[in-house]
Every structure is written in C-alpha cells, then in structure tokens.
TrEMBL record:
It comes from the Eukaryota. Mg(2+) binds at residues 469, 471. Residues 92-158 form the P-type ATPase N-terminal domain. Keywords: ATP-binding, Magnesium, Membrane, Metal-binding, Nucleotide-binding, Translocase, Transmembrane, Transmembrane helix, Transport. SUPFAM superfamilies: Calcium ATPase, transduction domain A, Calcium ATPase, transmembrane domain M, HAD-like, Metal cation-transporting ATPase, ATP-binding domain N. NCBIfam families: ATPase-Plipid. Residues 1046-1066 have a biased composition (Basic residues). This is Phospholipid-transporting ATPase. The keyword Nucleotide-binding applies. It is found in: Membrane. GO terms for molecular function: ATP binding; ATPase-coupled intramembrane lipid transporter activity; magnesium ion binding. It is a multi-pass membrane protein. The chain crosses the membrane at residues 353-375, 395-421, 896-920, 932-953, 965-988, 1008-1029. It comes from Callithrix jacchus (White-tufted-ear marmoset).
C-alpha cells in the first residue's frame, strides 16, 4: 500500500474500513485496516505532540501531520507509545524553560568519553574479551577449576590473564581520562546567558534550549543558535567555520529583519517569546529548515539564519542568538559519532592466528586423547587392580575425554597471550616518543605532536593512502600578488644591468610605497617599471588597476587607528585589491548602489549597476558600473580558458601574447587570472537590465534565464591582461609530499575548488610533475561515468607502474621483531612428557607462570620500543624503506609460520639434547642426577638463555636499557630459581616448593653447563648462519643501508633549503574565489553595509615559498644511496 499523497486524506488512501478513531487534547489518531495483498500499515498523526511520538519511521509529511510506517505485516496498525521517542520535529519557545522542559531536550553538556566510573569495568571487560586470546584464557581458567581435568593450578593462568587485563584497562582508562578532561574543559566554558531579564555568566553545560545567549567577537559559539541580532547592519555577522569544515574564509550569517530590530536591548530580548518549529537534530551542516512564529506572523528559517556550535564569531562586536540545539543534538556533535573500539590490522591478524593456534591445539588435544583412550583400553586395565580406580573411571572413552581437557590446559602456553601485553606497552611507549619528538614540535605556536590514542601507532607504518584537505593543510590560504601582464607587457620581473631577467636577491630593493597613504605594509613588488607606467599615465595600466579596484565583492572598513581594513570572502580577491591599493587605486567604500575608490589621490564614485556573480560554472565574475562621465562599463575577471572565448576578434594579437605570458606565469607555479572589459551602450544596457529584472521575478527556469543573460552581455570583451598570484604553501609541504610519493604512498587532495585550481595545487605541491606524460582528468558526474573513465585511464597506464626496492621501515621492524620473538618463545616454552598415558609438564608450574611475564617480557619490550634497523637520517634519505610495511612483508601469515617452525626446531633441540645427555648421566661425585627436577631445571635454564641470546641477535640498536633488560632478565631468572629451591621458602610453603636444593645441586655440575652450552649453540647457530648467508647473498635495502651505516662514522647531513628554480609547463588557470557563490546579491541589497567600525583584524601574511630543486636533490640522493650500495638493484623513481 503506497502512502497517501501530500494533502490527501488518509481515510481515502485505499483504507478498507476504520478500526479506531481516538481524539485527545493535542492528537488525533486515525487508523485503518490494510486490504488483501498489502504489506504495510500506516498511521497518521495529526497535530501530534513530539513528546508522545512513537518510535516509527517517517515516510511522508503533510501539513503538521506525520505519516508513519509501523512495519507490521498484519492488518492492524500499531498504537503509539507514550514514552519519549525518536524526535521528528523540534518546537522551541524563547525564554521559557518550563515550556521547553516538557519535551525533554538534551542539555548542553557533551560527552566524548567512552566510560564512566560505573560503566568502565563491564564495558572495558566486554571489549577486552572480544580478543580471542583473552576469551580463551578465561575459558581455560574455568577449566582449571575442575579438579578431574586440571593438570595445572589455577594461578598459572590467572596471573598472566589478570596482568594483561589490568595493563590494558589502565591504558584505556588513561585515554578516557583525557577525554573526560577535555569534556570538562569545554563544558565549563563561560557564556553570557539572558536570565531573569539580565545577562549572567553561565557554564556551557548549564545552557538550555530556548536560552538567549550573547556572543562577543572571537568567541566560540556554545550551541546551535538562531541569530536574532548583531552589532552589524541588518543583523549580519561573520563566522569562521574552520572547526566544522576546515574553511578559514569567513561566512556571512544574517538575522531576520523582525528580530534584528531587537538589537542589544536587554528588556526587549527578555520579552521575546517567539516559537521555532524546525527539523529534528541531524548532521547536515549546510541545511536547516524551520519556521519562527512571533507577533502573529510566521517567518521561514534557513541555514543562513543559524550559527552552529564550533564556529567562532569574527569581525562582529556582538550578537544575540536563541539556542535551538544543545549538547549532543548540535550538528557538530551529530557529526562526531560515537567513540568506537578500534583494532589495528595487526590486532585482526593476531586474532586470526590465535584462532588457527587454537584449532591446532584442539587437534593436538584430540590426537593425544585418542592415544590415551587406546592406551587405557590395551594397557591401562593392567594397572587398575593395583591403583584401585573407581568404577566410573574404568571407561577408556571417558578417560580420553578427561585427558583431552587436561592437555588443553597443559598446552595453553601455545596461545600467545603475552603478545597482547607486549603490544599494549610498546604502543604506549611509542605514543610517548611521538609526543616527545622535537622534530615534530611546531615552535611558532609552541604546539608539540600529540598521540591522541595509543592503539593505532603501528598503523603509521602501513599507510597506503593519504587523503588531505587543501585549505589550511597544504596551503596557508594566503595569496600574494607577484606578476601581471598589461597590454602585452609583463610587470613584476627583475632585470640586471644588461636587461637580462634575474632572480630576486636580498640586494634588490622593492618599490617604495611608503610615500602613499593606506598602503599594505607587507606588500612587496620589485619591478619599478609598473610605477613608472602609472606615473606616465598609461591608460591601459590605469584601466587594469581600476578593474582590480572595482570588480570584486570585498567589504572595507577603518579600524580605530584609521587604517583601511578589507574583509574578503576569498584570499584571491584580497591579494588583487591590496595590490591595486599599493599602486594608487584604493578601494574605499561601497553602498548598495555605489563604489567609491581613490584614483591616484582623487576620490571617484562609480554607480554600481549590476554584479554578475561568480559560481563554479561561470568561473568568472563581472561588475557593470557607470563612471562620473556617464560611461557604462563592464569589468570582468576570470579563468583564462573561459574569458578568452568571450573576447572580441580584434584581440587576436594581444591574446596570443598574453597566452604566452600566462604560460610563463603558470610555469613558475603562479595562479593566473585573465582581465577584460567592455564599453556598453546606455540603451542596450537598459534593455538588458529590464530582461534581467524579469528573469529575477520568474518562477520557472529562473537560474537558466539569468545565466543566459549573463552570457549575452559578457561578450565582445576587450582584453587588458592577466594577473599572477602566488598561493602560499605550508612550510615543508613540497618536501613532505615528495618523500611520501617516493615511499609509494598515494596522495589524494580533497578540495572544493575547480579543476584548474586543483591542478595548480598539484603542480605546486609536486604531486603532478612535468615528467608525467599521461595525466588523466576524471570529469564524470555519476558513479558509472567515473568508473568508466577510471577504467580507461587504468588501461592506458597499464604496465607503467614504477617498482621500488624492498626494505624495512624502522617502526614496523620493531613490531615484527617483537612479534617474532614472542611467537618463538610461546612455541619453545610449550613441551610436556607423556607418562603412562597421563601428562606431566617438563617445567614446573611457577616457571610456566613467570616465563612470559617476568623472564622474557622486558627484553622483548626493550627491543620493540627502542630498536631501529637504520637511523632516522637514512630513513629520510631513502623513503623506499617504508614500502614493506604497506605490503605487510614484516609480519604476515607466512612469517608467522616460519617463526612457528623455528620454535618447533628449538623445542626439539632443547628437549632431545637434554634428554639424551640425561639418559645415562652421573654427577662429578658419581651420584645419579637424571631425576625429573634436574632435567626440568636444565631445560628451563637453556630456554631462558636461548631466548635471551635470540633477542640479542635480533636487536640492531643497543641502548643501556636493552643491556639491562636482556642480561638482567637472566639474572632475575637465576635469583628466582635459587629462591624457589631454597630452605626458607620451603619452610613457608612446603607443598608448593618441595624441591629443596635441587637448583644449587644441578647447576654446580660442569656437565649440566656443557649441556646448556650445547643446546644454546645448536639452537642459535642455524639462525646465525641463515641470516649471514641471506644478508650476503640476498640483502634487502635495509640490510644494505645498515652495512653502509656501519662503514660510516657519521651520517651524511640532509641537504639544506633548496634555491628557487623555474618550471615550465602548460598554462593552468588559477582563478579560484570561494567554494560557494559570491555575495553579489547581498552587496546590491545593501544588507551588509556597516553602520560602524568593527574590531580591527590583521591583514594578509607573507611566508617564504620554497622551490622544487630540493625534490631533484632528494631523488638524486635516493638513487645515489641505493646504487652506491648495490649495483644490481635498480630503484626506479
């Protein structure tokens, strides 16, 4: 059954017969029965209060009515619940807490933390036991509590399990503590709230829906507000939305005219009792729909009337707003999402491997259980007469069943639970290294690096793709006017005494603008010929600068010091208007109908007849003005690819020359813009303007008609020239992008700019280079089109991928070595004797308990935290070292099974060499020492020494801590061993430590130490031999660089900052105003004209722009580094 159309009554929408008709104070519920073959029932709520709405999905909306789908397949509709449910509409009344509280709206307190004191333990334990190893050991602990099958005491499992759980919980609690701290800092910010007809300071968390808040300049917005009034004319205010969308360009918001009249009158604001009916909380930052009812009239609301939480009020002394959404209902928090438990790829791989290990353990247990059943049925019966077994235990099948669980307990160490603890500690250590890294410290703002989570560090060594925003990330969003071409002549170049073009040096003096008033102090221009042309009265130069002064949407104001300040929507416009101001053409002020400028000291007022605004389709903007002499002119600036098509045929020669200049500008990485004008006949303009007014009043095809009229008048233009603006990149962007590219990391830059600007940024950042023969522009508008274009591009590029040499990345090798060592320890530490069908562990229970958490944990942690295969300098010189981490070459299933085989080999060596030596051995005193406990002590000592030597061989970078942890662990082992076999501890715990003096007796025998030495050599030598041959015959890139490091006493320093270099390429237009349409309509309406001066703001800043020769040096250095190590290996850059 389809829902009824908008405006159609529900009773007429295929309803067979009414089932009920209930009416109450604020609701009317009409239900109906579904006809045969219809699957869904519908319920229409007319004037239904939001507090009583059911948890049903909205399907359609009629006037104040909501059509809801119950989801039932029966013929009876659902009655709606009386509980607070999913909000489908918000109703807010200003200055009325009692009215708003009945809707139970959220307060303004935010929670980004995961836990509270009460929920931490259950939630954290639930998350931790999602790890397979933790869940396994919990089950194992339960099994060990059953006496019939427990072959080991419970503490052998609970001690490592509790240690793992506790350390992880402490780390998670620490992370969440900082989230709580951040939340408290935000929640306790102060804001001025209108309470009892006066403004009072109130904490953000106490702000309620319906409150009226006063904001001041440069203050964060506390909640999603309906703008009521501001210090600016017509209720305008300027906000910065960088916290929401990353854009630093100011956005304009405007209050309703009926509320802007409230101004700053506290008494009138306190009496404001408007009711807002709007959409429910959602995460759409660019959309808002609502209705304000006040004084018997209704006013529609849109996104331009709303100030969102996270914005900062700029260039506006004050404003008042009414809270619509608070706390978790704000659009900022709706986009933040719930904090999730994140797992790294290594975590996921380890879970898979643990499942495989567990499967192997089950299979091994089954095989041993079957063997036990066979033994019991064939041989075990012969012992029952002497052992007096119970009747219930005579079944060989039941004996095998119990033995299965017994072996599962005995062989539990095959599951590497200690690996998880080591991973957590290493991640915590690495996060502190990130925070302490001086090379990642930003001194200008005293901001260090901050690892906000300690669970994802190793992912930094496996990055394949980087998605980067442009504005504020790659660029500083600061533009500087550098060059221009006027009537076929380039201005901005520097020439020597012979007339040859040279680079700007410190000895070269810039043009002195100090004699002029209202100049930009930071603007520098080194070509004096432009000032000479201006002073000589060149009409083309004057017209060029006049166009820059008139054709824009900049707002001007004077601060308290009388300095002229420009408020720009786009930094491009700011750069051009500022340049014109320094050359004597100063934009002074504007009204809805006029623009006042100063031309070489003479004030001139132009009538503003029309603004043909910029958008991403037109890629240009124009203004039509009338000068004091009555001449009407159209001034236009835009992308050269667009504007050149609009030129009059008589511009052919100038067009060719200007195109060459644009190519030269683009070759230097500058953003280009074409400049043109047209003289208009008065009669023609009046006819055109009449058609424009008709088009603006049209209800159908309005935008198409206006666009057609713009095209009509923007033709037969006369070319004046072009501008070239330098876009300021962030410091180090080019070097960083180059290194990332050489490391085989794919970089995607996300930008709302048009294609020309995006290509410009690509070349400026060296993501696109002139060496790239095939650059494909994907311009599809649908998923199918984009997929098809990508397929074609892939076909054209097939087989042209560059191959990089394999190597090791420093951070990833730490993880790989640590993982390898723990896996090997796990396998070698697992061995049991099978005696008469029953199990007996070789090692005593305390050794099994302490092996992973005491004897071998610290060396593994020291290696994982401090080790590095090559130095940081060599890592930067050879970015290809990063690639193995991307390809998971350092730890994968194959490497895991190699480690398992290594562990099995070591286990066999440890057991059988010791067993063979003890088979018929006597001590120096002639006494027999082949007892079980001496055998266990010898094997345990051999195992600890072998593992420590193996970790020492794996360590590439030795520190004092490495030495202490590795050799200290051996010392700790012997200390604990002798303590457990001493008379003192036997006197305290006689049942737990019965082998008094065994360690002292065994380890004083020379033959025992010979056995330990033999097992150590037999275990380690194959590994040493294999690694020696591998490094000598098939060295990896990191092996080669490590050998080179050893041969060098000093690491070669990095190359210094590179000199400027020129790049020739095809022309790329740099025309880029804001990402949205301009404010031409707002300017001509007069709504943004200031009544008084706002607070002062800083002007454009200037930073050094790096050239690209460093890239060539790096590529050459990388190639030289690799080729000097191995002539056989080719590194293709």
């Amino acid at each position: 059954m389809a829902p009824p159309a908008m405006g159609q009554s529900f009773m007429s929408a295929n309803v067979k017969k009414p089932l009920f008709h209930k009416r109450s104070n604020q609701q009317e519920v009409i239900g109906g029965e579904i006809g045969v073959g219809e699957e869904l029932s519908y319920l229409l709520l007319v004037n239904f209060s939001p507090i009583h709405r059911a948890k049903c999905r909205i399907i359609n909306e009629a006037t104040r009515g909501y059509l809801l789908r119950s989801g039932e397949r029966s013929g009876v509709t659902m009655f709606c619940s009386e509980k607070k449910s999913l909000e489908v509409e918000r109703i807010v009344k200003a200055n009325d807490h009692e009215y708003n509280e009945k809707f139970q709206y959220a307060d303004n307190r935010i929670h980004t933390s995961k836990y509270s004191i009460l929920t931490f333990l259950p939630i954290n334990l639930f998350e931790q036991f999602q790890r397979v190893a933790n869940a396994y050991f919990l089950c194992l602990l339960i099994l060990q509590l059953i006496p019939e099958i427990s072959s080991l005491t419970w503490f052998t499992t609970i001690v490592p399990l509790v240690l793992v759980i506790t350390m992880t919980a402490v780390k998670d609690a620490t992370d969440d503590f900082f989230r709580h701290k951040s939340d408290n800092q935000v929640n306790n910010r102060q804001s001025e709230v209108l309470i009892d007809s006066k403004l009072q300071n109130e904490k953000w968390m106490n702000v309620k829906v319906g409150d009226i808040i006063k904001l001041e300049n440069n203050q964060f917005v506390a909640a999603d507000l309906l703008l009521l009034s501001s210090s600016e004319p017509h209720g305008l205010c300027y906000v910065e939305t960088a916290e929401l969308d990353g854009e630093t360009n100011l956005k304009v918001r405007q209050a309703l005219s009926v509320t802007s009249e409230l101004g700053a009158d506290i008494s009138r604001l306190a009496r404001f009792d408007g009711i807002v009916v709007c959409e429910a909380p959602n995460n759409k930052l660019d959309k808002f729909m609502g209705l304000l009812s006040w004084k018997d009239s209704k006013h529609s609301l849109n996104n331009e009337k709303i100030i969102l939480r996270g914005c900062i009020l700029r260039n506006t002394s004050w404003c008042f707003g009414m809270v619509i959404f608070a706390g978790p209902d704000t659009k900022l928090m709706q986009n933040s999402g719930k904090t999730k438990f994140k797992r790294t790829s290594i975590d996921r791989l380890m879970n898979t491997l643990v499942l495989w290990i567990f499967g192997f353990l089950i299979c091994l247990g089954i095989i041993l259980a079957i063997g036990n059943s066979i033994w019991e049925s064939q041989i075990g019966d012969q012992f029952r007469t002497f052992l007096f077994w119970n009747e219930g235990e005579k079944s060989s099948v039941f004996s095998g069943f119990l033995t299965f669980w017994s072996y599962i307990i005995i062989l539990n160490t095959v599951v590497p639970i200690s690996l998880y603890v080591s991973m957590e500690v290493i991640r915590l250590g690495h996060s502190y290294f990130i925070n302490w890294d001086r090379k990642m410290y930003y001194s200008q703002k005293a901001i260090p690096a901050e690892a906000r989570t300690t669970t994802l560090n190793e992912e930094l060594g496996q990055i394949e793709y980087i998605f980067s925003d442009k504005t504020g990330t790659l660029t500083q969003n600061i533009m500087t006017f550098k060059r221009c071409s006027i009537n076929g002549r380039i201005y901005g170049e520097v020439h020597d005494a012979l007339g040859q073009k040279t680079e700007v040096t410190q000895e070269k003096k810039p043009v002195d603008f100090s004699v002029k008033s209202q100049v930009g102090r930071e603007f520098q221009f080194f070509d004096h010929s432009l000032m000479e042309s201006i002073e000589l009265g060149d009409p083309k130069v004057h017209e060029f600068l006049r166009l820059l002064t008139l054709c824009h949407t900049v707002m001007s104001e004077e601060n308290s010091a009388g300095e002229l300040i420009y408020q720009v929507q786009s930094p491009d416009e700011g750069a051009l208007v500022t340049a014109a101001r320094n050359f004597g053409f100063i934009f002074k002020s504007r009204t809805p109908d006029t623009i006042t400028i100063e031309e070489l000291g003479t004030p001139v007022t132009y009538q503003l007849l029309a603004i043909l605004d910029f958008n991403n389709t037109r890629k240009r903007m124009s203004v039509i003005v009338q000068n004091p002499e009555g001449q009407i002119k159209l001034y236009s600036k835009g992308a050269d690819t667009i504007l050149f098509e609009k030129l009059h045929p008589s511009n052919e020669d100038l067009l060719s020359l200007t195109s060459d200049h644009l190519s030269e500008f683009a070759g230097e990485g500058l953003r280009t813009l074409a400049i043109a004008y047209r003289d208009l006949d008065d009669k023609y303009f009046k006819e055109w303007h009449k058609m424009l007014e008709d088009a603006n009043a049209a209800t159908e095809e309005r935008d198409e008609r206006i666009a057609g009229l713009y095209e009509e008048i923007e033709r037969d233009l006369m070319l004046l020239g072009a501008t070239a603006v330098e876009d300021k990149l962030q410091e180090g962007v080019i070097e960083t992008v180059t290194s990332l590219s050489l490391a085989n990391i794919k970089i995607w830059v996300l930008t709302g700019d048009k294609q020309e600007t995006a290509i410009n940024i690509g070349y400026a950042c060296n993501m696109l280079t002139d060496d790239m023969n095939d650059i494909f522009v994907i311009a599809g508008n649908t998923a199918v089109e984009v997929r098809e274009e990508l397929r074609k591009a892939k076909e054209n590029l097939f087989g042209q991928n560059s191959n990089f040499s394999n190597g090791h990345v420093v951070g990833e090798k730490k993880q790989q070595l640590e993982l390898d060592s723990v896996v090997e320890e796990t396998v070698t530490g697992d061995y049991a004797l099978i005696i008469n069908g029953h199990s007996l562990t070789v090692y005593d229970q305390w050794f099994i308990t302490l092996f992973n958490i005491v004897y071998t944990s610290l060396p593994v942690l020291a290696m994982g935290i401090f080790d590095q295969d090559v130095s940081d300098l060599n890592s930067m010189d050879c970015p290809q070292l990063y690639e193995p981490g991307q390809l998971n070459l350092l730890f994968n299933k194959r490497r895991f099974f190699i480690c398992v085989l290594h562990g099995i080999y070591t286990s066999f060596v440890l057991f059988f060499i010791t067993y063979g030596a003890f088979y018929n051995m006597a001590g120096e005193d002639g006494q027999h020492i082949s007892d079980y406990q001496s055998f266990a002590v010898t094997m345990a000592t051999s195992l600890v020494i072998v593992v420590s030597v193996q970790i020492a061989l794996d360590t590439s970078y030795w520190t004092f801590i490495n030495h202490v942890f590795i050799w200290g662990s051996i010392a700790i082992y012997f200390s604990i061993l002798f303590a457990m076999h001493s008379n003192g501890i036997f006197g305290i715990f006689p049942n737990q430590f019965p082998f008094v003096g065994n360690a002292r007796h065994s380890l004083t025998q020379k033959c025992i130490w010979l056995v330990i030495l033999l097992t150590t050599v037999a275990s380690v030598m194959p590994v040493v031999a294999f690694r020696f041959l591998k490094v000598d015959l098939y060295p990896t890139l990191s092996d080669q660089i490590r050998q080179r490091q050893k041969a060098q006493k000093k690491a070669r320093p990095l190359s210094s900052r590179r000199p400027r270099t020129r790049r020739s390429s095809s022309r790329r237009s740099g025309y880029a105003f804001a990402h949205q349409e301009g404010y031409g309509e707002l300017i001509t309406s007069g709504k943004n004209m200031r009544a008084k001066n706002p607070p002062p703001t800083s002007g454009l800043e200037k930073t050094h722009y790096n050239s690209t020769s460093w890239i060539e040096n790096l590529c050459k250095k990388t190639t030289d580094t690799v080729s000097s190590i191995s002539q056989d290996k080719t590194v293709k850059l």
